[in-house]
Amino acid sequence: VNMLKKVVFLFLLLSICSLSACAERNKNAQEHEIETSTSVALSNNDQIDAVQATEALQQIKEQIHFNVPIKMPTTLPIAEGAFLSATARTQGDQVEVIFYESKENMPINDIRLKKSATVIGRLLVKKYKSVEGASTQIAFDNFNQNGGQEVDLGYNIKGYQDAGAGSLWTGWNEGRWAIATHTRTDNPDAGVKLAKQAVAYLENHMLPIPRQYGMAQLDVYQSGNLIVWQDEKLVYTLDSIKDPLKALAIATAFYQ
């Protein structure tokens, strides 16, 4: 009898363990399935956002009627789930494109954009009568020759600091680009930090190749970001971009 009880007990114990193991396997399988489906959903959303942005940029190009071809960014940094749109206006020898992100998909030049969408940035492209006339619009500096206090920006790049009227600039050159960060003299570390972030970013991202020069001003306080470059008789200007690193991201999207 005792032996029979032991056999029954062992049988019940094994059955319980087996059921517990099955339950745990089912739970793990369900969790994996949920994680996988969530990952697929996020991936699909990213793909949808990218397709929408690509289509919007193509539509912007189609809205621009200019006497010479102009380049547009291949992509723009927009918030997840947001839609890209723009207003495009051609007047004489100048094209103005204001890029927007919105919660709903709006056509190019929709009148609702100014009230219910957020400005990503503005692109101005102006054609000059000559290459020489265009080149006068680029405030290019050779910071190595200008001098100033040296600062190591990493990646074997030296910056040069210049202060005046309460402002502190940290400038450096990359190819035919003159780049400088701006901060106030009472917050000097912020200018160096932003300069190092920009240098690190540009190690893996290319600014458009200027013909002849380009310049970028990156503002710590997000109020004066400006990127300008020449392409023969055309001058491209990016402004109205609050985040200085986002301004760089938009500029590098013009590299082709």
Short description:
This protein is an alpha+beta fold and 256 residues long.
Task: Annotate the secondary structure layout.
Layout: H1 2-63, E1 83-91, E2 94-102, H2 113-116, E3 118-127, H3 131-135, H4 143-146, E4 149-152, E5 158-164, E6 167-174, E7 177-184, H5 188-202, E8 214-219, E9 226-231, E10 234-239, H6 244-252
Parallel strand pairs: 7-8
Antiparallel strand pairs: 1-2, 2-3, 3-10, 4-5, 5-6, 6-7, 8-9, 9-10
Q: What does the model show?
A:
Helices cover 39% and strands 29% of the residues. Strand 7 (177-184), helix 5 (188-202) and strand 8 form a beta-alpha-beta unit. Strands 1-2-3-10-9-8-7-6-5-4 form a 10-stranded mixed sheet. It is α+β, with helices and mostly antiparallel strands and 256 residues long. The longest helix has 62 residues, at 2-63. It is globular, with a radius of gyration of 28 Å.
Beta-strand level of the residues, as a percent range? 25-35%
Q: Low-confidence stretches at least 5 residues in length (pLDDT < 50)?
A: 1-46
Please provide the ordered H/E string of secondary-structure elements: HEEHEHHEEEEHEEEH
**Number of beta strands:** 10
Based on CA atoms alone, the radius of gyration comes out at 28 Å
**How would a textbook summarize the main sheet?**
10 strands, mixed
What portion of residues is helical?
25-40%
Strand order of the largest sheet: 1-2-3-10-9-8-7-6-5-4
Overall pLDDT confidence? 85
Query: What's the total helix number?
Result: 6
Q: What's the overall geometry?
A: globular
SS content category: alpha+beta
Amino-to-carboxy terminus distance: 87 Å
